[in-house]
From TrEMBL:
Predominant localisation class: other
Annotated pathway: Lipid metabolism; fatty acid beta-oxidation
Domain 3-hydroxyacyl-CoA dehydrogenase C-terminal: 475-568, 603-688
Name assigned to this protein: 3-hydroxyacyl-CoA dehydrogenase NAD-binding domain-containing protein
Keywords for the protein's UniProt record, in alphabetical order: Fatty acid metabolism, Isomerase, Lipid degradation, Lipid metabolism, Lyase, Multifunctional enzyme, NAD, Oxidoreductase, Peroxisome
Record's keyword annotation contains Metal-binding: no
Subcellular location: Peroxisome
Domain 3-hydroxyacyl-CoA dehydrogenase NAD binding intervals: 295-470
Highest taxon, organism lineage: Bacteria
């Protein structure tokens, strides 16, 4: 017998074995339609007297990526996953699952409800729900402990980490490891169960021993985190219910799951999940990417070395060109050190590490760029140096080679104009450290060809990065918004908040570091050089804070000199720098500024509203395609807290009308800085949200992630 159930599941029999194959590309995500098809197929095989055992397995790259995240927030419609899993577990006929690729979330919960679990090949399993602001909502928190014990389940569920097949076998989650095709592995296991060679292990009838020490340690660890997210703590509560009878535990788990499902943390984390993937939906996506095998990186400094490392890890052949021959060896050493670090962190296998090293050539002559399909310039941020270099590259590089600049703010149109191939010139703005940070701003100049843009996006995806399309302006998307965020913080400092209060408020909001601690890390002298460069074009009416300049005048450049806003010893921050506090107080006196106090809420509101206002201007000028692209820039390039979803997701929580009220209130302090963007007024008038704008602009609706 063979039957295709609604095009999503194939059921068939092989002798006395019934087979259920999940077949819903691209990842067998388990939504209502697939759930229903699995359930119908299961009932059919249950009724078939010739079937003595049932095997579930997946078609395609994975067994399944779990519940369909696009369904979140929708009403529960039968058959729900818990309902189906109860039927699997209660089945008289043994139910076996053969897992391959990944089995995450609801996919693993399906496996936990079966009677025997086979791991095939390089399978990875996990319950990553906490990364989406949830907990395993279909029995995972009850059934995993029944196989792995409470401590093992707490570790996997509260961290959301994924686990190799070997570790899963050692933890008692899997019953057997196999190679080859999941279908055959499942049939062999089913036959062994029927022959009594392999003992089925149903989970619901197993007990879970208390482990108060593990629970106490986990609670302390989760509460100590900054920020202490809600989902992991609630997931811990759900796992602890596993010591109850199974039906009580399942009921407790479901109630806690629904609580989280309704929460802001889930909406934000799901939004972030889709934001990471939405940005590839660009106008040029139909263009065919050019073939890129060999890449030349010009510049052996920190950025060039990081970019070269990222490309080597991505499988490309790299010519790293450093004009100053005495620095070529140092550049190579930098790449070797980065690759060794990636190997040590487990990001690279030995084999991949060695292959990456073998694919690196270093040179001090531009001639090596002649064989490149793509050149990425990463020299110092000076327009005349860049245009001179691009003119040379234009003559050296082969026709059709793409010439990219890594500039973080300079005009890519001007750089393109220095060549006779403006259609091949593009911006690839990597973020330091380039082999770790995932964001790439792909800056499209006026004459950049569509296939050049498509090539940049294909490269970024192959590097495992998040590409975001930007048009040309000073600072593109991220640095434009960062400038306003920093100005808001600087004005708060002048007006009475201390830099420790400002950093503390933003770190409580979820930023890993507040703006002043970040400045110390980046180097106050670097930022001063940028301010000096811009001084000539700074509008006269723009409020300017001299505090950072005055701190620099003391030779205090931050972490690298042991003093900046903070004092550092042995690389560790020792608290606010008394000298910096004094500089701020003196500057307030010199400006005759009354010292006002600000609550943490107002500090966060002013800094976040400044980011949002500039982001709206970036949108209305067409620099960014959609609000979700701006969220992706902030989440993957600027450390915006993931559980807050991004500035535009936050803007939807605040609402256009309230944002306008705040901007108009703050404008009493500084009307030049606080201005309401036209688009925001239009949205308030038309009752539109930024989530609506995401869908309207390109049809890529991320509504499921924010409702
Ligand atoms: N639901 C819906 N779509 C999904 C999805 C999912 N679970 N997983 C992936 N996709 C889409 C993704 O948006 C993209 O779409 C395409 O599939 C390829 O994904 C009840 C409630 C599996 C490791 O958290 O980790 O079960 O952009 O680009 O890099 O307790 O996808 O092409 O239109 O990421 O090879 C738990 C999330 C859900 C796993 C594959 N599961 N997914 O990575 O491909 S909650 C997860 C991943 C749950 C239960 C609870 C990865 C992957 P598009 P991709 P990839």
């Amino acid at each position: 017998m063979k039957d295709n159930v609604s095009g999503l599941v194939v059921i068939e029999t092989e002798g006395e074995i019934g087979l259920i194959r999940l077949a819903k590309p691209p990842v067998n995500a388990i939504g209502l339609a697939l759930r229903t098809a699995i359930y119908e197929g299961f009932k059919t095989l249950q009724k078939d007297p010739a079937v003595r055992a049932i095997v579930l397995y997946g078609e395609g790259r994975f067994f399944s990526a779990g519940a369909d995240i696009k369904d979140f927030g929708k009403a529960d419609i039968q058959p729900t996953l818990p309902h189906i899993l109860k039927a699997l577990n209660d089945s008289e006929k043994p139910v076996i699952v053969a897992l391959h690729g990944v089995a995450f979330g609801g996919a693993l919960e399906v496996a936990l409800a079966t009677h025997l679990r086979v791991g095939v090949g390089d399978l990875r399993i996990g319950l990553p729900e906490v990364k989406l602001g949830l907990l395993p909502g279909a029995g995972g928190a009850q059934r995993l402990p029944r196989l792995s014990g409470l401590a093992g389940a707490i570790d996997i569920i509260c961290s959301g980490r994924d686990v190799s097949a070997r570790e899963a076998l050692d933890l008692g989650i899997l019953d057997r490891l196999a190679e080859g095709a999941p279908r055959e592995a499942g049939i062999i296991a089913a036959r062994d169960v029927l022959a009594g060679k392999l003992a089925a292990r149903r989970t619901d009838t197993r007990d879970v021993a208390e482990d108060l020490a593990a629970v106490k340690a986990a609670k302390a660890r989760l509460k100590a985190k900054r920020p202490a997210l809600q989902a992991p703590l609630t997931a811990l509560e759900a796992v602890c219910a596993a010591t109850l009878p199974i039906d009580e535990g399942l009921a407790k788990e479901r109630a806690l799951f629904m609580e989280l499902m309704a929460g802001e943390e889930r909406a934000a984390l799901v939004h972030a999940f889709f934001a990471e993937r939405a940005t590839v939906d660009i106008p040029e996506k139909a263009a065919h990417p050019r073939q890129i095998d060999r890449i030349a990186v010009i510049g052996g400094g920190t950025m060039g070395v990081g970019i070269a490392t990222s490309l080597l890890i991505g499988g490309y052949h790299v010519d790293l060109i450093e004009a100053q021959s005495e620095r070529v060896a140092q550049a190579r050493a930098g790449v070797e050190s980065n690759l060794a670090g990636a190997l040590k962190r487990g990001k690279l296998t030995e084999q991949a590490h060695d292959a990456a090293l073998a694919a690196l050539d270093c040179a001090d002559s531009l001639d090596a760029a002649g064989r490149a399909d793509l050149v990425i310039e990463a020299i110092f941020e000076d327009m005349s140096a860049k245009t001179a270099l691009f003119t040379k590259l234009d003559t050296i590089c082969k026709p059709g080679a793409i010439l990219a600049t890594n500039t973080s703010y300079l005009d890519v149109n001007e750089i393109a104009a220095a060549t006779k191939r403006p259609q091949d010139v593009i911006g690839l703005h990597f973020f330091s450290p380039a082999h770790i940070m995932r964001l790439i701003e792909v800056v499209v100049a006026k004459e950049t060809a569509p296939d050049c843009v498509a090539s940049a996006f294909a490269l970024a995806r192959k590097l495992g990065k998040v590409p975001v399309r930007a048009e040309v302006c000073d600072g593109f998307i991220g640095n434009r918004i960062l400038t306003q965020y920093r100005r808001a913080a600087d004005y708060l400092l002048l007006d009475g908040a201390s830099f420790t209060e400002i950093d503390g408020a933003l770190e409580d909001f979820g930023f890993a570091m507040g703006p002043f601690a970040v400045s110390d890390l980046a180097g106050l002298d670097i930022a001063k050089a940028t301010r000096d460069r811009k001084a000539a074009t700074r509008p006269a009416e723009e409020r300017y804070s001299r505090v950072a300049d005055l701190i620099c005048d003391q030779g205090w450049f931050g972490r690298k000199t042991g003093q900046g806003y903070y004092v550092y010893e042995g690389g560790k921050q020792q608290g606010g720098n008394p000298g910096a506090f004094e500089i701020v107080a003196a500057e307030r006196r010199a400006l005759n500024l009354p010292k006002r106090s600000f609550t943490s809420e107002e500090i966060v509101s002013r800094c976040l509203t400044a980011m949002i206002a500039e982001a709206v201007r970036v949108l209305e000028e067409g620099i960014a395609l959609r609000p979700v692209d701006i969220d992706a820039v902030e989440l993957f390039g600027y450390g915006f807290p993931r559980h807050r979803g991004g500035p535009m997701h936050q803007a939807d929580l605040i609402g256009p009308a309230e944002l306008i009220r705040r901007i108009e209130l703050y404008a009493n302090d500084d009307p030049q800085f606080w201005q309401v963007p036209h688009l925001l007024r239009d949205m308030a008038r038309e009752g539109r949200s930024f989530a609506d704008l995401n869908g309207a602009l390109t049809g890529h609706v991320t509504k499921g992630s924010t409702k």
